[in-house]
Specification:
Blueprint (H helix, E strand, L loop, with lengths): L1 H8 L31 H4 L2 H16 L5 H14 L4 H30 L6 H4 L3 H4 L6 E2 L2 E2 L1 H4 L2 H37 L2 H42 L3 H9 L1 H9 L2
Amino acid sequence: MFSNILVAASPAARNAIVRNKPNEYNLAPETKSWKGYFPNPFKILTGRQTTFTSITTFISSLTFVFSPVGMTSLMGEIVGSRTKGAYKKSTTSLTVMNGVTESTYLAEAIIPLIAFGIPLSPVALGPASALFNAPPVYSVEPINNLHTYLSTWDFFIFGFIGIVIASLIAYPFSMNYARKASVLVLKFVSQEAIVAMFIGLACLLAYNEAEFLGIILTFTVATVGGLLNRILGVGAGVQFMVFYASSWIMLQLFRF
């Protein structure tokens, strides 16, 4: 996204992305293959999609210290490259990516919390950090958080309650109204607003980590990553994993 903005700002390269008419989006018609409000996922997904999703979610759960976004993109690209047909490729990739997203975020929050009590994953360090370290209630030095307050059975019981609530409310709601929500966004939310929201979020997180230097580094990485994808075709999943491990790689290469 950021590389496209830079290309648009360059007089020499601008013609590569200039459009003479607005983009056209074609949404598939509303085709509900189930009756009632609660759809059965095993009847909606094909056997191939179920198999791919099960394997990739299992693998991504084991790699709970890796980047969740990177694992989602990487698994989606791997499965998509092994699926023929535009429609089957897109639906299978999206199915796998959705499953991997859920499994990685859950695994990266729950496994470090139950097993160690310290944040060992990007999710535990970010969105779930309050479960580990929220002074003066929770702390990691010494470990005094949900890891010490709840037993394994407590985690299982409360986790199961969350699964039941999500299965009864969030899952059927999203399945029945996903297309209507997509139409609403495409009609009434401009693409510029979405782009501005993502840039603003990136600036907020970067500034929180390293102030203005963090913003500069973030946009530098965004520029390099976008150009690698546009010019050399390097996938987003591979780049996420490389950038996530870049500090360790540089340490091993140069011993800084």
